[in-house]
Design brief:
The protein is mainly α. It has one domain. The chain is built from 7 helices and no strands.
């Protein structure tokens, strides 16, 4: 019976670390998880629907698995090795940029860079919502997932603005 509990813990850890990618490095696991998601976006068909499906799957898996794992087995409310939230944010970014027609590898790399920028620095609304949700025991897992979704929304907004601006500048010349 103890082995099945241990197996459950390992499966939950495997999912929230996105197949172990969050365990590769102690210094920048979120960047590694986001980078792996970027590689997946580049490898799969350039479909906003497929990226959106991947977003929803990673969101619900992350939310459920974090809610079972974090309160029971972790003292830190957002351990660094939990990277399924970064993967979720990258899939959301991919869905939006693909829908807007930005499908080149450069577009996906720009999405990655902007997402990491907003995820690391966490401007005011992202930081406030993350902090508020993590102070309540029953919303910790939602806070883990939601801050990266907000970072993704900020990133794609900035990217669409930058892409539109550069498009206008090139057409003025």
């Amino acid at each position: 019976m103890a082995q099945s509990g241990s197996l459950k813990i390992r499966i939950l850890l495997f999912i929230i670390s996105f197949f172990g990618t969050g365990l590769i490095s102690r210094k920048m696991p979120g960047t590694i998880g986001s980078f792996v998601a970027m590689l997946l976006l580049l490898a799969m068909p350039k479909s906003s629907v497929l990226a959106l499906v991947c977003f929803f799957i990673s969101f619900f898996l992350g939310w459920i698995c974090c809610s079972f794992y974090i309160p029971k087995y972790e003292m830190d409310k957002d351990p660094a090795y939990v990277v399924i939230d970064e993967v979720c944010g990258m899939f959301l970014s991919g869905a939006v940029i693909y829908h807007c027609g930005y499908t080149t590898p450069f577009d996906v790399a720009l999405s990655f860079a902007l997402f990491r920028l907003f995820d690391i620095f966490k401007p005011c609304p992202i930081h406030n919502i993350e902090t508020w949700l993590k102070t309540h025991q029953n919303t910790i897992s939602l806070g883990i997932m939601l801050d990266d979704i907000l970072a993704s929304i900020f990133a794609v907004t900035a990217q669409v603005f930058l892409e539109a601006l550069t498009f206008q500048l090139f057409h003025l010349c």
